[in-house]
Design a protein that fits this description.
By secondary structure, this protein is mostly beta strands. The protein has no helices and four strands. It has strands spanning about 10-15, 20-30, 30-40, 45-50. The protein has a four-stranded antiparallel beta sheet, with no helix packed on it. A hairpin with a 2-residue loop joins strand 2 (about 20-30) and strand 3.
């Protein structure tokens, strides 16, 4: 998302899911939480969820 930086990444992990390596993470930016998953072999996003944060 435009404007987010590495400082907005609050979680980033490596994990094996269904026999493949994935990167999973969480970004907090501009009042929203973004949960994502990336296939480590292809770089393809396999998960992208967005929730508005409650204040």
């Amino acid at each position: 998302m435009p404007g987010a930086t590495v400082a907005n990444v609050t979680e980033f992990n490596r994990d094996y899911e269904n026999g493949r390596l994935e990167y999973e993470g969480e970004i907090h930016y501009n009042g929203y939480e973004y949960d994502f998953g990336i296939d480590a072999d292809t770089g393809t996003f396999i998960k992208w969820e967005v929730e508005q944060e409650a204040y």
